[in-house]
Write a structure and sequence with these properties.
Elements (H helix, E strand, L loop, with lengths): L6 E3 L3 E2 L2 E5 L3 H4 L3 E7 L3 E8 L2 E6 L2 E6 L9 H19 L3 H13 L2 E2 L5 E2 L2 H16 L23 E6 L4 E5 L13 E6 L15 E7 L10 E4 L9 E9 L9 E6 L3
Antiparallel strand pairs: 1-4, 2-3, 4-5, 5-6, 6-7, 8-9, 10-11, 11-14, 12-13, 12-15, 15-16
Length: 267
């Protein structure tokens, strides 16, 4: 069964309710298993169908047996899940129809890439949650929740920060940034910094997971000073490679795309 939004669907029967036949688009979208780009056959595919997972690396596209992901249900995961639930309830029960419509408009104008890099509309609720979870996780005081949707239709721009160094002795890392960027000179904006577990020095790319290491708060009067030294969220030793992911959250709720950098730990 092929839908117009190029999702590969796994049929008209709901596996959790096998006696129920799917009758509308809302039901059908539950069964998105893999997305693909049509070509002579299939030009690109990402996701899982049955027991097969489709992905790609620097060598190209490949298939592998699907692995059931482990859910360690850590304190950090529980925190994020709680925030998602709280924000969803606020969207339904607190935000006005006008506010929800404004987030829908922002999502319509600012599409996000899917796993194949194709733009997609994640919807107003998706954008509302995406914008606010990182802010509330970092600091609900310095980076308060944003209920009104951005009226500038982009994700915000910033100068790429740099993971300057990491010290085994202090278990800290130094991060440089450009304090002339707009976010650094704006109240209630911030640079969100996430760190990886230590990796072997042969690893050149790390997708995740990352854990929040800290944030740099913007200031409309006195911008923050670069570099910043912060405690790394995972232990590491000399010679191991650490990866950093950063995002910028603007005061109006715009959340940037991620930027990644790495450094090799020293003594």
């Amino acid at each position: 069964m092929l839908a117009t939004h190029r999702m590969f669907l796994c049929g008209p029967v709901c596996p959790s309710r096998p006696n129920r036949t799917l009758t509308n688009v809302r039901d059908v979208r539950v069964y998105e298993m893999a997305i693909f780009t049509p070509g002579g056959g299939v030009a690109a595919v990402s996701g899982s169908i049955g027991g097969t997972t489709f992905s790609r690396n620097r060598g190209g596209a490949y298939m592998r047996l699907r692995a059931i992901p482990i859910n360690p249900n850590t304190v950090y995961q529980q925190e994020v899940r709680t925030l998602v639930g709280t924000l969803t309830s606020r969207w339904l029960d607190v935000l006005t129809p006008e506010q929800r419509a404004a987030w829908d408009t922002y999502a319509l104008n600012v599409e996000l890439p899917n796993p194949l890099g194709q733009p997609r509309n994640v919807g107003g609720l998706g954008m509302f949650v995406r914008s606010n979870v990182p802010r509330l996780q970092a600091s609900p005081v310095d980076l308060p929740r944003v209920d009104d949707a951005p009226t500038i239709f982009n994700l915000g721009e910033y100068t790429s920060p740099n993971l300057l160094s990491a010290s085994e002795a202090t278990q800290t890392a130094d991060v440089t940034f450009d304090n002339t960027d707009e976010w650094a000179n704006e109240d209630s904006s911030g640079l969100l910094i996430y760190g990886s577990r230590a990796q072997n020095p042969s690893i050149n790319y790390f997708k995740g997971p990352y854990r929040l290491a800290g944030y740099v708060e913007g200031n409309g009067t006195t911008p923050p000073t670069s570099p910043i030294s912060l405690d790394w969220p995972f232990p590491f030793t000399v010679g191991q490679r650490l990866f950093m992911m950063v995002r910028v959250s603007r005061a109006d709720g715009r959340l940037s795309t991620p930027f990644r950098d790495w450094a090799v730990a020293v003594g």
